[in-house]
């Protein structure tokens, strides 16, 4: 990092607005843009461990706050370099690494079993890069290899993971700073619970005989990450069906955004704070309908 990049100008007014927004993703994206010298949504999503939809949502909120357009123009001297590629080790390097480090030799042996074949020089370079360049400890790499193998088997019985998929997963773990066996086990436990909840959501939405698409999965993972349970999804789905007569992902997402803004997450909180009930309009006239969804009805007209 250059001396110029080590001091980022953060205007006091912008800091005040970010604090008042109470939105960590928005503040994080602002700092990322300030640091990187420009907005590249795809790279931002990878660097911040967020989905593309979350980055787009945060960028739109920054724009509404008047902060996105007020950011300085990209500075070529401050632009972050592309994601580091793994080093190009020579055959001599690989032989020396294996001779000097029994743990790397153990990784090679386990990977050979996971891939179901003898490792190629390219495989060995990739594994050495994950271990030495990305800094994942041997026990973490072994767990990663077996997780990739289990996921490949789940997608198609009898299949094995590709080296590319292992490298991609290793970058993801490194970006998440999963650097100990305990962190890796906690992360895999979280992912397992998320998969189970995603399957429950798929049942709630009556999606049978197929997996969720990439966009559908991003919606579901976003709702789960915000703290909504499959039971809460069932409530939102029911309201969407009553309003539109069909599943509409964008409309449901607006419902969840509304509930999250009101800090309503559990079914009990939703029914108590946002339930469908008759209310009294100004002047004492009974008003039917869902008070909480009136703004969503207007939003839907624009979708």
Please describe the topology of this protein.
Blueprint: H1 12-21, H2 24-36, H3 41-48, H4 52-64, H5 91-100, H6 102-115, H7 121-133, H8 138-155, H9 163-175, H10 181-204, H11 214-225, H12 230-244, H13 249-261, H14 267-274, E1 279-280, E2 286-287, H15 294-302
Antiparallel strand pairs: 1-2
Helix pairs in contact: 2-4, 3-4, 5-6, 6-7, 6-8, 7-9, 8-9, 8-10, 10-11, 10-12
Protein model, in words:
The chain is mainly α. Strands 1-2 form a two-stranded antiparallel ribbon. α2 (24-36) crosses α4 (52-64). The longest helix is centred in the middle third of the chain and has 24 residues, at 181-204. 64% of the residues lie in helices and 1% in strands. It has 15 helices and 2 strands.
Offer a quick outline of the entry:
The chain has 303 residues and is mostly helical.
Features:
64% helix; single chain; two-stranded antiparallel ribbon
The dominant shape is globular
Range of strand content? under 5%
Distance between the termini: 43 Å
Number of helices: 15
- Quote the average pLDDT: 81
Which structural class is indicated by helix and strand composition? mainly alpha
Low-confidence stretches: 1-6, 76-83, 277-292
Order of helices and strands: HHHHHHHHHHHHHHEEH
- Helix share bin: 55-70%
As laid out across the biggest beta sheet, the strand order is 1-2
Task: Kindly state the number of beta strands.
Answer: 2
Radius of gyration: 24 Å
Work out the count of structural domains. 3
């Amino acid at each position: 990092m250059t001396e110029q990049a080590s001091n980022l100008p953060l205007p006091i007014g912008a800091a005040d607005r970010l604090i008042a927004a109470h939105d960590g993703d928005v503040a994080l994206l602002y700092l990322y843009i300030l640091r990187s010298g420009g907005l590249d949504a795809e790279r931002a999503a990878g660097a911040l461990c967020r989905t593309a939809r979350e980055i787009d949502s945060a960028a739109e909120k920054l724009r509404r706050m008047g902060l996105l357009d007020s950011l300085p123009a990209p500075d070529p001297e401050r632009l972050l370099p592309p994601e580091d590629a793994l080093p190009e080790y020579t055959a001599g390097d690989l032989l020396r690494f294996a001779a000097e480090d029994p743990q790397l030799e153990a990784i090679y042996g386990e990977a050979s079993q996971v891939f179901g074949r003898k490792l190629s020089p390219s495989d060995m370079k990739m594994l050495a890069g994950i271990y030495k360049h990305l800094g994942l400890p041997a026990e973490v790499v072994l767990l990663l290899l077996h997780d990739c193998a289990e996921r490949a088997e789940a997608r198609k019985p009898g299949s094995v993971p590709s080296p590319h998929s292992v490298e991609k997963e290793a970058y993801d773990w490194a970006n998440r700073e999963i650097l100990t066996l305990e962190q890796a086990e906690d992360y895999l436990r979280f992912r397992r619970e998320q998969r189970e909840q995603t399957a429950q959501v798929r049942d709630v939405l009556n999606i049978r005989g197929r997996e969720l698409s990439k966009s559908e999965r991003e919606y579901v993972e976003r709702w789960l990450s915000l703290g909504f349970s499959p039971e809460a999804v069932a409530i939102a789905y029911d309201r969407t069906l009553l309003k539109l007569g069909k599943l509409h992902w964008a409309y449901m997402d607006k419902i969840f955004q509304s509930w999250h803004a009101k800090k309503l997450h559990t079914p009990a909180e939703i029914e108590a704070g946002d339930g469908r009930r008759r209310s009294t309009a100004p002047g004492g006239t009974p008003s039917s309908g869902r008070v909480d969804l009136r703004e969503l009805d207007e939003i839907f007209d624009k979708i």
